[in-house]
Amino acid sequence: MTAVSRQPAIEVSGLTKSFGDKPVLRGIDVNVPEGTIFSLLGPNGAGKTTMVRILATLGTPDAGEVRVGGHDPVRAPGAVRDIIGVTGQFSAVDPVLTGLENLRLLGRLLHLGAAETDRRTTRLLEQFSLTEAAGKRAGTYSGGMVRRLDLAMSLMGDPRIVFLDEPSTGLDPRSRRELWAVIRGLVEQGVTIFLTTQYLEEADQLADRIAVLDGGRIVAEGTAEELKRLAPGGHLRLSFADAESLAAAARAVPGAEVDAEQFALRVPSDGSVADIRGLLDHFDGHAVTLDQLSIHTPDLDDVFLALTGATAKGARL
């Protein structure tokens, strides 16, 4: 994750979409710099898949401006399709065909020509560690292998932007982490990833920026660390050598929660350096012997629970 200025790969402004009288997206604004991972979090029915379908030319918005790689998905769907790859919640792999045949079939559909199809197929099988299984029917693959093949197929056209809609659904922890390694490798090659997921650890591990979608609106956006500061529960835990130091510290910080058995204080905090320095300044002039200080910050589970629901308030960092 870097602070280097990048051109936008995806730009969305005021995006709205309804199905009948049910609004699904209610004015979405998103900007995804090229060569980064952007994750869209949200509960079931929040509108994540609807948004991906619109960006990938598979749906049309009711209103708003959308650009994918500089192109309008409605007015120039062909230009968008030329530069994107899509891996959905459900695999596009044909279980009757071998891994090799699945990739070659896609190459023919993309009109790549026999030589280029073979070149890309060989490269993708190696990249996704599927060379040994290339001649086996995909129906015999493990869940992790199927997802890797599915992602490999979405890359057959050498896309600049890849949409991953719940890519690790149904995978065991080992297969999920193998998939994460592949995704990181794509970004190192300059590919932009737009990721929707319900696995909060997945967004925490992968994303440069995360947006939380709820009720058709972005209720928060920022880095994982920025979002964690929005949830309640962050605190500093200070441990002391003895009861005398604990008592002196408690007098210096009257609002702290005291754990007399553990000689510890719990002080609400966002964990920032400024907050820690300010707290320690309270101990000047007090007979305090601080033994240990630890920072406890909320995780994305806390953020998700705090921000999703009818009473969630918007926040953008």
Q: What secondary-structure arrangement, pairings included, does this model have?
A:
Layout: E1 8-19, E2 22-33, E3 37-41, H1 48-55, E4 63-68, H2 77-81, E5 84-87, H3 99-109, H4 114-127, H5 143-154, E6 161-165, H6 173-188, E7 192-197, H7 200-206, E8 209-214, E9 217-222, H8 224-228, E10 235-240, H9 243-252, E11 257-259, E12 264-268, H10 273-281, E13 290-296, H11 300-307, E14 315-316
Parallel strand pairs: 3-7, 3-8, 5-6, 6-7, 9-14
Antiparallel strand pairs: 1-2, 1-4, 8-9, 10-12, 10-13, 11-12
Please supply descriptive tags for the structure shown above:
317 residues, Rossmann fold, four-stranded antiparallel β-sheet, 11 helices, alpha/beta, elongated, 14 strands, 2 domains
If you had to describe this structure to a student in words, what would you say it looks like?
This protein has two domains: 8-93 and 141-228, P-loop containing nucleotide triphosphate hydrolases (Rossmann fold), CATH 3.40.50.300; 235-296, no CATH class. The chain is α/β, with parallel strands linked by helices and 317 residues long. It has helices at 48-55, 77-81, 99-109, 114-127, 143-154, 173-188, 200-206, 224-228, 243-252, 273-281, 300-307; strands at 8-19, 22-33, 37-41, 63-68, 84-87, 161-165, 192-197, 209-214, 217-222, 235-240, 257-259, 264-268, 290-296, 315-316. Helix 3 (99-109) crosses helix 4 (114-127) and helix 5 runs parallel beside helix 6. The protein starts with 7 loop residues before the first strand and ends with a strand. Helices cover 33% and strands 27% of the residues. Strands 5-6-7-3-8-9-14 form a seven-stranded mixed sheet, with helices on both faces. The model is unreliable at 310-317 (pLDDT under 50). It has eleven helices and 14 strands.
